[in-house]
Amino acid sequence: MSKLQQRVNDLIGYIQQGKIVQAMHEFYGDDVSMQENNNPPVVGKAANVEREKQFVAYVKAWKRFNIRAVGIDEARGIALIQSDFEFDAVDGKTIKYDQVSVQQWRDGKIVHEKFYYDSASK
User: Fold this and answer.
1) Would you call 72 exposed, middle or buried from its count of C-beta atoms within 10 A (0-12, 13-18, 19+)?
2) 15, 64, 67, 102: least CB-packed within 10 angstroms?
3) What's the chain look like in SS3?
4) pTM, whole model, 2 decimals?
5) Average pLDDT of the chain to the nearest whole number
6) pLDDT of the residue at 112
């Protein structure tokens, strides 16, 4: 197993255990840029950790989190993860996502990540 594949597997493990904020500290670079669809990116680990804390606080209960596909381009440091998940939010809504995350890795850390999903289904 490649080093990048192992890091991606470890990241997925953190997320499946609900350790989303901890994953930010372990797997993301200080200068990370994260972007949802074509919205402006959020730049810097501190800003993205805050964003993830807000997301986690919005989740009342997880219903499912499935990894559907993982692709690794070791030479380019690219990982693609397709996942679908569902949760109940604190405002009573049930949220469902089917998304693809494209990650650029450098020195064992994610430096850029873009999420692609149908925002109408959010």
Assistant:
1) buried
2) 64
3) CCHHHHHHHHHHHHHHCCCHHHHHHHHEEEEEEEEECCCCCEECHHHHHHHHHHHHHHEEEEEEEEEEEEEEECCCCEEEEEEEEEEEECCCCEEEEEEEEEEEEECCEEEEEEEEECHHHC
4) 0.92
5) 95
6) 98
Residue 79 burial (CB count, 10 A): 23
Contact 47, 53 (CB under 8 A): no
- For the residues 48-52, what does the mean pLDDT come to? 97
User: pLDDT of 64-115, one tens digit each?
Assistant: 999 999 999 999 999 999 999 999 999 999 999 999 999 999 999 999 999 9
Torsion, Cα 41 43 49 51, to 10 degrees, reads -30
Max alpha carbon distance in the chain (Å)? 44
Closest CA to 33 of 89, 108, 79, 102: 102
Asked whether the beta carbons of 67 and 12 are under 8 A apart, the reply is: yes
